[in-house]
Amino acid sequence: MQRTEHQVPGAVPHGTGAARSRPWLGLAGATREAGATGVVVSVLGVLAGLVGIEHGIGEILQGDVPVETVVLESWPGVAAFQPLDGEPALSLLPTMQVAGWASVAVGTAVVLWSALYVRRPRGGLVLVGLSALLFLVGGGFGPPLLGTVLGLATLGVGRGRAPGRLTARLARHWRGALATAVVGYLALMPGTVLLQALAGVDDASLVAAITVAAFAALGLAIVSARAHDRLVASPPAGPARLWPRR
Fold first, then answer.
1. Among 21, 24, 41, 80, whose CB has the most other CB atoms within 10 angstroms?
2. Contact criterion met (CB below 8 Å) for 191 and 51
């Protein structure tokens, strides 16, 4: 009896030529050039860059005042940002305004690189470098950490031994994990800011819980996306059913 392999939607059939190109977001499918890991890194990298820009805006609004200590607050004295402790950041630059404009510039670079170029060879390492620069100029602590994790997640994608059944089951949930991570980070920023501004909620334990949940979802999204890409690159000998049989 002839065995039929179940292909991942949008993937390259095993033993065939190059994959067809996809739009950069690629949520409808994953190819070897634009795999699931690339989608996760692109989407969450854009969010990291946007939050870095938001840090910079708060610093610009403080005017041309000197940075008295290495650690500063991007939004000091703003009630809506109190749940986030005024959004602390680190900057080696001399004034708040210079730090702010630098954060906006580097944050914009992170957004553009994540959206358009991170899937190029060594694109993840460039994202790590941009994230380190964002950290040093005043783009906060969370955005550079997120960008660094995402950049490192691109290393060795699709390599390793052929996945087993457990990996195949995990791989089918990468889209849901990504959506959960996006919701988690949006709940953190601007969610907690809006919650304080509109309802006066300032709960440190809530912020901590959302932060832990967001990073847990990030980890699951990366692990499941890498599993998906490894399965596409090295399909198992038997049928690997990523999607339920119709």
1. 41
2. no
Give residue for tokens 């980070």. 185
User: Model confidence at 181, in pLDDT bands (50, 70, 90)?
Assistant: very high
Tokens describing residue 74: 């991007």
User: 69 near 89, Cβ under 8 Å?
Assistant: no
Neighbour-count burial for 88-103, b at 16+ CB within 10 Å, e otherwise? bbbbebebbbbbbbbb
Torsion-angle region of 156 (φ positive above 0: left; ψ -120 to 50: alpha; else: beta): left
State how far the Cα of 207 lies from the Cα of 191, in Å rounded to an integer: 10
Alpha carbons 96 and 114: distance in angstroms, whole number: 26
User: Assign residue 77 a region: left if phi > 0, alpha if psi is -120 to 50, beta otherwise?
Assistant: left
User: For 34-60, what is each residue's pLDDT tens digit?
Assistant: 599 999 999 999 999 999 999 999 999
What would the pLDDT profile of 119-138 be if each residue is shown by its tens digit?
Answer: 999 999 999 999 999 999 99
Q: Which residues contact 240 (CB under 8 A, 6 or more apart)?
A: 5, 6, 163, 168, 231
Task: Enter the pTM of the model.
Answer: 0.81
Residue from 158, 157, 89 nearest 125 by CA: 157
Residue 61, pLDDT > 70, answer: yes
The count of residues in the chain is 246
CB 35: neighbour CB atoms within 10 A?
30
